[in-house]
Amino acid sequence: MSKTISILGATGSIGRQTLDVAEQLGLRVAALTAHMDVERLEAQVRKFRPRLAVLTDEAAARDLAVRLADMDTKVLGGPEALLEAAVCPEADTVVTAVVGMVGLRPTLAAIRERKRIALANKETLVCAGQLVMDAADTHGAEIVPVDSEHSAIFQCLQGCADRREIRRLILTCSGGPFYGMTYEEVGKMTKADALRHPNWTMGPKITVDCATLMNKGLEVIEAMRLYRLPLDQVSVVIHRQSIVHSLVEYRDGAVLAQLGTPDMRLPIRYAMTYPERVESPAEPLDLLSCPPLTFAQPDRDAFPCLQLAEAAAAQGGTACAVLNGANEEAVGLFLAGRIGFHDIPRLVAEARAAVPAEQEPALEDILAADQAARQAVLDRA
After folding, report:
1. How far apart are the C-alpha atoms of 260 and 266, rounded to whole Å?
2. Which of 37, 236, 265, 371 has the fewest CB atoms within 10 Å of its CB?
3. Per the annotation, does 121 bind a ligand?
């Protein structure tokens, strides 16, 4: 069980909920980081009194340092400072809750220090899954997923000593706010429409990814890396109620599922307490009052991002880094009101066609592919 944690991305949705869980469990906080939310990070620092606070925006970090002049917390600025937070010696667990490729290098740094990685940054495994998992093996670091789907699979695999016993992993997907719409209907949806997720409260980027189903595609790649399985052993089903968080089908026909209320504090708590389970103040799932549980196939024609992700997963190498970088850039443009909803899969597909994929890439190849994909999107937007 964790005793002291560092949180990369403390002011975002996962970071804030992690602090709620840390307070409930009585965990100490060694380091907190954010991008540029000075006011929220200042409030968190004053409450949890970490040794280190980081803002990757350097001007915001200077502002924070002035505000916290009366405290002992060290304040650093700039993206490189994330690495110091990731290797903070007091922390036994690093929660990687930043969004995007910025989480990759700090995660690798924490792995080298044999920290437990409570992984909420899916881009790390999507873009560099083989490197990350190999590094974890080499250094003896533990990776415990925080995403509700991967936490569910992680829990369903407890007691599975041989991965050959697995027939397939089944990731559940709410379907997002546009479930049941045709491709033409989806194309008319606005930013405000895309940000209305039916079940979960999340940051804007991941919420848009849920609307395009790219989030599920990224999770397919993440599952392949985490559990070292090929694409044909990872499938997706639509489950609108978000009660069954994912399932594992074993080769003898048994299917194990993890159920719970749609509350991210549950998988966060498990990542903190694993391998133990401790009492939670959360309202337990009431099977007698929850809605009927339904399952359906995803519509890959209406939501082409899922197919794009699966194609990148099949190709491997830097194809997944290209996919992710292009998607991040395209979603940013959509949130800024510069492109329409259907432009997201269009730009991702065009970037995938424009940027060649390299097999067995080194870290610098992955970072270069990410940058090339982003530029390809900007050139075509």
Report:
1. 8
2. 371
3. yes
Strands (E), 25-154: 28-34, 52-55, 74-77, 93-96, 116-119, 142-145
Q: Lowest-pLDDT range, 85-99, 188-202, 325-339?
A: 188-202
* Residue 141 to residue 233: CA distance in whole angstroms: 25
For residue 197, say whether it is annotated as part of any ligand binding site: yes
Tell me 158's DSSP state.
T
Query: Quick one: average pLDDT of 86-92?
Result: 97
Establish whether 123 is an annotated binding residue: yes
User: Alpha-carbon distance 115 to 376, whole Å?
Assistant: 36
At 127-154, the pLDDT tens digits run: 999 999 999 999 999 999 999 999 999 9
Residue 147 assigned as binding residue: yes
Question: Is there a contact between 113 and 87 (Cβ–Cβ < 8 Å)?
Answer: yes
pLDDT confidence of 201, banded at 50, 70, 90? low
Query: What domains sit in the chain, N to C, each tagged with a CATH number?
Result: 4-145 (3.40.50.720), 148-312 (no CATH), 316-381 (1.10.1740.10)
Q: Report strand pairing: 244-250 vs 166-173.
A: antiparallel
pLDDT confidence of residue 346: 98
Is 11 labelled a binding residue? yes
